[in-house]
Write a structure and sequence with these properties.
Layout (H helix, E strand, L loop, with lengths): L5 H14 L5 H7 L23 H4 L10 H6 L23 E3 L2 E5 L2 E5 L18 H4 L7 H8 L6 E5 L8 H12 L6 E5 L2 H4 L6 H9 L3 E6 L9 H12 L2 E8 L8 H13 L3 E6 L14 H12 L9 E4 L8 E2 L1
Parallel strand pairs: 3-4, 4-5, 5-6, 6-7, 7-8, 8-9
Antiparallel strand pairs: 1-2, 2-3, 9-10
Helix pairs in contact: 11-12
The structure holds pyridoxal-5'-phosphate and iron/sulfur cluster.
Pyridoxal-5'-phosphate binds next to strand 2 and strand 3.
Length: about 325
């Protein structure tokens, strides 16, 4: 038998894992050994924002626990159809910050590229769950217009690859973008916002790590984990590999009712992140996007959690509690 090269093998692995992600609530419940009667409220079998959960993520859920914090992040509920006052389709003002399709600029020196609309997982609280990705993708012309815009604005020193999840693009596509950015002298840092190392660690394969290591700038990767149980051994290993490629690792989490709205949950998350080489960066208050109201934690409760967290953890493991405010010049500390 002829052995496959490692790269080929890993590549098919992560794409296959994405292709076989769970898309039906009934299938998800079966996988974790639950029936609808065991859940406290009705689920949604036909949500506009469909389910997408790789099996590797489902395996980290506690079997038979209707209150599992990972399950809660991804299971569509009927309640998402409610339209409470104050919840909108574009709560963070992405529309007005769009410089050209797929390029957002809200803050000094930083430009954010919406590289793709695709995510390896669909988080029910996502502030971009209604984002018009069809119109907003930057890669349709091989990044030409996006790169030209960045090249023409010398005040941009940091480029952020976001989405969707930029690691949904395969590495040759990322390499193409990196090559275009390399030629722009005023870029000093490249940042990648991705939930992939947490959701589908197989994506962090040899080809991706090689690309990361060969980039000419210091790179930062901001991952997204909300609960300690999301970080298992495989995730921790992929994070250490990213760090070994010369990348600084930070985490952003969202404060979510029923997921991580306790001091114990936030402290465990900080500890597990640190063990994997990641520092907590932001803890976001929920963006008030339609469909996510059941995740909201009020400001007073959030402040109390932070106060108690500070009494328990070293300062570098306490994330900054922030709120995204449309039109503001930076993320607002609360
Ligand atoms: C959140 C965000 C950033 C990054 O903000 P930092 O405070 O530097 O982490 C940059 N651009 C946009 C459009 C953002 O939404
Ligand atoms: S990974 Fe991020 S962008 Fe994708 S659905 Fe989850 S919160 Fe939204």
């Amino acid at each position: 038998m002829i052995p496959l090269s490692t790269h080929h093998c890993q590549d098919t692995d992560w794409k296959k894992a994405l292709a076989t992600a769970i898309r039906q609530p009934s299938e998800l419940l079966r996988a974790v050994g639950l029936s609808t009667e065991q859940l406290p409220e009705p689920i949604d079998d036909a949500a506009d924002f469909p389910l997408r959960i790789p099996r590797a993520y489902v395996e980290r859920m506690r079997h038979g626990d209707p209150a599992d914090p990972l399950l809660r992040q991804v299971l569509a509920l009927r309640r998402e159809r409610e339209t409470p006052a104050g919840y909108s389709l574009d709560p963070v003002g992405d529309g007005p910050a769009t410089r050209r399709p797929g390029l957002l600029q809200k803050y000094h020196g930083r430009a954010l590229i919406v590289t793709t609309g695709a995510c390896p997982i669909h988080c029910r609280y996502c502030f971009r769950r209604h984002f018009p990705y069809g119109e907003a993708r930057a890669g349709a012309d091989d990044w030409r217009d996006t790169l030209a815009h960045i090249a023409a604005d010398a005040s941009i020193s940091e480029v952020i690859l976001s989405g969707g999840d930029p690691l949904s693009l395969d590495t040759p596509r990322l390499r193409k973008l990196g090559e275009g950015l390399r030629d722009i002298p005023h870029i000093r840092r490249l940042r990648i916002h991705s939930r992939m190392p947490v959701v589908l660690p197989q994506r962090i394969d040899a080809e991706f790590l090689a690309w990361l290591a060969e980039l000419p700038w210091r790179t930062v990767m901001v991952i997204h984990a909300n609960h300690a149980n999301e970080i298992d051994g495989t995730v921790a290993r992929s994070l250490r590999q990213i760090q070994a490629a010369g990348t600084t690792l930070l985490n952003q989490a969202v404060l979510l009712q029923g997921v991580n709205d306790s001091v114990a949950a936030l402290a465990d998350l900080g500890e597990n992140l640190f063990e994997a080489g990641v520092l907590p960066y932001y803890l976001h208050l929920l963006d008030h996007v339609q469909g996510a109201a059941h995740f909201a934690v009020d400001d007073a409760c959030a402040h109390e959690l932070m106060e108690r967290l500070r009494r328990q953890l070293p300062g570098y493991l306490v994330p900054r509690l922030v709120r995204e405010q449309a039109g503001a010049p930076y993320k607002q500390l609360v």
